[in-house]
Structure formats: C-alpha cells, structure tokens
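seq/struct pair 1
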Amino acid sequence: MADHEETKKGKSRKKGGFRTMPFIFANEVAEKLAVLGFSTNMLMYLTKQLHMPLAKAATTLTNFGGVSAMTPLIGAFLADAFVGRFWTIAAASLVYQLDNVGWGLGLGVPTFCMAVSVVAFVAGYPLYRRLEPAGSPFTRLAQGGGAAVRKRRVPRAAVEAGTLYENDDMDAPISLYGKLVHTEQLSFFDRAAIVIDGDLKTDASDGKPPSPPVPDAWRLSTVHRVEELKSVLRMGPIWAAGILVITAASQQHTFALQQASTMDRRLAPGLSSFQIPAGSMTVFHMLAMLATLLAYDRYALHGVAEAFNSVGHLEFMYDQSPESMRSMATALFWLSISLGSYVSTMLITAVHRWSAGADGSNWIPDNINHGRLEYLYWIVTLLQLLNLVYYVICAKCYTFKPLQLHEDDDDDHRKPQVELQEKLSCKKRLHH
C-alpha cells in the first residue's frame, strides 16, 4: 500500500512545471495572432467596406470587444464548477473553428492560427496538472454571505478567531495547496463561522453509531470559506480601477487606427509605393511592451501602460483569488475589459452628441482632420488622472490574503508557513 502511494506521488510530481510552458506559449502566440489580426482591421473594414460613420464604427467595435470579453465568465464558471479548465478551453477553441471556417479567405489565416493554438494546447494534455471541479464558487460565496446575514444579531464579542469553526476535511477539495487563515478585515462575515444551535446536524439512525456532526452549509461556513468571500470582496475595488484603463486603451483600437489611415505611411516616399498598413501600426505599442522604445511615442507609451496594467492586473487577480476560484478570477479581468469597452462606447456616444454644432460639425467627424479628436483625448486623460487617485487609495487600504501552506511532500518536517500575512488595511494603521 505504501509503495502504491509513493508511486502515485511520483506520477503527480511529473506533471506541471516548466515542461508545460512550450505548449501554453505556442497556444497563446497562435491565439493572439488570430484574435489581434481579426480585431485590428475591423475598424477599417467597417468604415471602408460597410461605409459606417466613424463614431458608429468605433462604438460597434467597442461593443464587440465588450461582448467578447464578457464570455470568459461563462467558461470560467464551467471550468471551476463542473467541467474542468482543460476541457473548457479545448471545447471553446473548437467552437471557434466550426463557426468561422466557412467565412472565406478573409478569416482563413486567423482560423488557421486558431487551429494551431488548439493543437498546441491539446498536445500538452499528458503533462498538465489538472484540478478537479469543486462545485459552484457562487454557491459557496452565497452560503457564506447568507450565514453572516442570518447571524447579524450575534454580539461582536463572540467573534474571536479561536472560536470560529474550521473543518479541514470539508475544505480539502478546495484547498489543495494551502488554507486561508483568519483576518480582521470585513469582520462582519466572521459571524458565518460562529457555531450556534442548529448549525450542526448528526445522523442518529437506529442501530447505527452516531456519525460526526455535519454543518448546514447555509447556516455555518468554515474560516477558509469565509476568507474566500473576503478575498473576492477585497479584490473588487482594485479590479474596478482597471475599467477606465481599458476605456483609454479602447481608443488605440479605434481612433488611433483611423489616425494611422490618414498618415503618410510610405517607407521611402518617391522611391517605393509600399506603405505600412494602418492596422499594422498597433505593432509599435505591442513592441513597446517588450522594450520601451521612444520612437512613435504615442504608440510606445500606450504599450508600456498596457504591459503594466494587463500583466499586473491579471497576476494580481490570479494570485489573490481563492485557489478554487482562479478561473473565475481570471475571467473577472476580462470582465473589466468588457465594462471598459462599454464605458468607451458611452463616452464616444456622449461626446459625439454633445459636441455637435448647428452646422453639423462635431469633435468626431468621419474625416478626423476636420474634427477635434484631441478634446476627446483630454477627457480620457482627466478620467485616468481621477482613476489613478482612486487606485492609490485602494492600494493603500488593501490587505493581502494570508495563506497557510500545506507541508511539502519533499520535506515532511517543514512547518506550515504563512505566505502573505502583511496587513495593509487602513483600520489597522489607525489603531496603531
């Protein structure tokens, strides 16, 4: 039996790690090539081929981005609760192939790239470390919140860390790598972990020994589950700070491309008729995410900002989310992109309407050389300044989740440790 357990552990160690990186990297490269190749040329298609007014084409594109970025919420819910992450990604990629393969040569290259991304992702299947679905995360959050509201009349003095309910067996499927420990912030929800009459049920069948008491999940939550709820709520304000950043970034894929179409994009005027396609101008802000190039400053500066925001925001959501909700937390990043796109739509619509003059002119005409697009950019800049102040306040008040790691299989004598226990809450500093 012991040999069987050792063999099982050895097999589990062979999965995951750096060996899976080539498959994930190839999947991301091919998928981004398909998506960006499609989206960056969409504005030119709407204005040149469908002859849409510039403002309407811009709002159509941001609405498309909003809907596209909202769909990962559905996939994340299925991945965390029922299906698993691998099969969710694989199925969604195949749906794209079946839906777009017949659209003609214009989508041929993006479709081929998506097919390559699917093959690269599925090829690494034997090496992936798979986390089994552990039920709906929304249900656990609702149970914790409902239990706290039910016990809202419990005296505050009864909420002490030593008296709160814990059940390692109950939390085992959702805490494979570590258990969340109690924090003082958002202490109202600690009431969900206080044991009162009726919270525990015992099966007292005739002729059978009494079984251990089982908690009613809608009346009693463990400390780990309460801290899951707290973690999600704490991430909310910082998550919201990314919405207006995406609103500014949306202009890069709309009016910036229209500006590029009016530029002299010839590499050698008078010597060659070749000119850089307008859609390819976005390459400069992508390159700036790898190296802070000062050439094409308006594109490079946006690339640097997107690198810090996108990578940092996504890493924050993944690291600070509960272990069993990481797919959902990653989808929340895309939800901020969705909401940012919709805010951009509302902003463009409002500016286009409010700036209209009696002679039919406005800040965003079809020919941007006759408009005042810089006024729109100043409005976006002001929104970013206010958003920066809001973000700094949220960051100052944020409390990192404290995680008690499980003992490592390679070192049975290593004591559990607390990974992130620094408390940065405003309340604690005021007490000191």
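seq/struct pair 2
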Amino acid sequence: MQRIGKISRFGLFLCVSTLALSACVSDNGLDWDLRAGGGDTSDAARQATAAAPTPDTNGIISYPDYQLATARRGE
C-alpha cells in the first residue's frame, strides 16, 4: 500500500467516504448526544430568569432543602 504522508490511501478513502455518507443523513430523527428527551432546557431557563426570593425579617431565605442567610448593610 502506498503512503501519503503517514496516512494510507485506504485510510484516506475511508475518512472521505464516511464524511460523504454522513452528509446524506437527515438529522430529523438522529440523536447526536445520545440522550433521550432531546435535551430540553426551557424549564431551567425559566427558573434562571425568575425573580429572586425575598428574605424574611431575620434575613433568612428558605428553600425546600436548605436555608440561606443574607447580610444587611453595615453587617
């Protein structure tokens, strides 16, 4: 087999044919990242733009799993 640089002709042919065949595939049903569900991030985007919760009179913000203390000016 004759070499072109370090790549054989067969390897070059294999790469070119793979690229040519992949260009023929329609991407309607192809899942490129192999995750089910299509990777919908619209819920996360809506939560990211939601208004920040307001702390109570003691400066505590309560979440379902934890609490967060906020500092006031001068503290």
